[in-house]
Amino acid sequence: MPPLDHSTALKRVYLDNAATSWPKPAPVYRAVEQYLRDVGAAVGRSVYDEAVTAQGLVENTRRAIAEWIGAKQSENVVFTLNGTDALNTAIHGALVDGGHVVTTLAEHNSVLRPLAALQEAGRIQISRVSCDATGVVDPAEIRRAMRPTTRLVAMTHASNVTGMIQPAAEVGAIARDRGVLFLLDAAQTAGEIAIDVEQMHIDLLAAPGHKGLLGPLGTGFLYVRPEIADQIPALRQGGTGTHSDRDRQPDAMPDKFEAGNLNVPGIAGLGAGIAWLAERGIEQLRSVAIERTRKLIDGLSEIKGVRLFGARSAEARVAVVSISVSGYDPQELAATLDASFRVQARAGLHCAPLMHRALGTTASGGTLRFSPGPLTTEEEIDVAVRAVAEVAAQSPVV
To answer: pLDDT tens digits, the chain, 398 residues: what are they?
Structure first.
């Protein structure tokens, strides 16, 4: 492998798209600025031109999300503060009367912590299904973990540590057959992998807007299947601009879950991000993600002292590749890559402590995670691989 040319290595190589996407497509920046400069009105509160324009931006984005995920009714797409807020709304709402929950070791803290809080309060019981060595769950284990009191199956669509894609459609079919609600966390898949809430038997779908959907931070959504909308209570109450003569939160969707002012500049940017994705199509987006991931896996696997986590197949995972390098703490490795080469990756436990426990990486501080995005170039992947090779070559234990 040729050494890295340090004269060109100071260009920022951002490979932390699993945390938040960057750079955003140019239309995203324009949409946010145009709203802030030219519109600036709240949604649902007035009838002057700019307020109507703001309402149109929100509803157009809502319809775009519904189309992207195969939802028949756009009003069942609810805007949230972020993906975590969407998961909390789903979990606390679905489990308001308690019950048993089946989840997995691959989950993010946005699922683990709400469930743990409910368990500690004595309101629910939890069964946590294990994964194989790559981080994939066996649907049969989900089925075996169910009880007569099971109310909810909560599962990530892809691990944010190993990148491995979970068999969501199979799990959704099992849950539907048993009359159990199925919540899917699409934090790592929305925007990269095709999602169809009808075909996959998804009752509740939570996703951030700022990752694969390329919107700004502070955006997210929750899809609630129309047939269960009346079973999920709202966590917040407040102004909606509708039914203002009543002191009770409206039951109609989406107002039921959208108390207070929406993040309209963020939603405008999210709509522009989804439009950019839609122009390219999910097949092309997925193909690019696989190519970049394969290039990253192939390059890193040749470096002495590097251990890769998850299956080697790029097709079996999203664009997330975690590694460890002999002789280096992940945080030290990340800091060195940024300081010396401007290669930026995420180090640590990635808010998925049970996954790291299963991988045996907790004591060593987790892993270093690379996550290219749709605007990541092949040249940037090459720079990252050569940077890791140079740092690994200096390890005292290699």
So the answer is: 556 655 454 799 999 999 999 999 999 999 999 999 999 999 876 789 999 999 999 999 999 999 999 999 999 999 999 999 999 999 999 999 999 999 999 999 999 999 999 999 999 999 999 999 888 999 999 999 999 999 999 999 999 999 999 999 999 999 999 999 999 999 999 999 999 999 999 999 999 999 999 999 999 999 999 999 999 998 887 866 666 667 777 778 898 899 889 999 999 999 999 999 999 999 999 999 999 999 999 999 999 999 999 999 999 999 999 999 999 999 999 999 999 999 999 999 999 999 999 999 999 999 999 999 999 999 999 999 999 999 999 987 75
For residue 135, give every residue at least 6 positions away whose Cβ sits within 8 Å of its Cβ, in sequence order, or none: 106, 159, 161, 162, 164, 309, 310, 355, 358, 359
For tokens 């990752």, the residue is 211
C-alpha torsion angle, residues 38, 39, 41, 43 (rounded to 10)? -160
How many other C-beta atoms lie within 10 A of the C-beta of residue 302?
Answer: 11
Closest of 228, 351, 277, 271 to residue 79, by C-alpha = 271
Residues 6 or more apart whose CB falls under 8 angstroms from that of 323 comprise 300, 306, 307, 308, 309, 367, 368, 369, 370, 388
> Given the structure tokens 């994939």, which residue do they identify?
136
Asked if 259 contacts 237 with a C-beta cutoff of 8 angstroms, the reply is yes
Angle between helices 378-393 and 330-341 (to 10 degrees): 120
Helices 378-393 + 282-301 axis angle, to 10? 20
CB burial class (10 A; 0-12, 13-18, 19+) of residue 9?
middle
The helix/strand/coil state of 101 is strand
Structure tokens at 270: 């999210």
Q: What is the C-alpha separation between 342 and 89, in angstroms, rounded? A: 38
CA 246 to chain centroid, in Å, comes to 36
SS3 14: strand
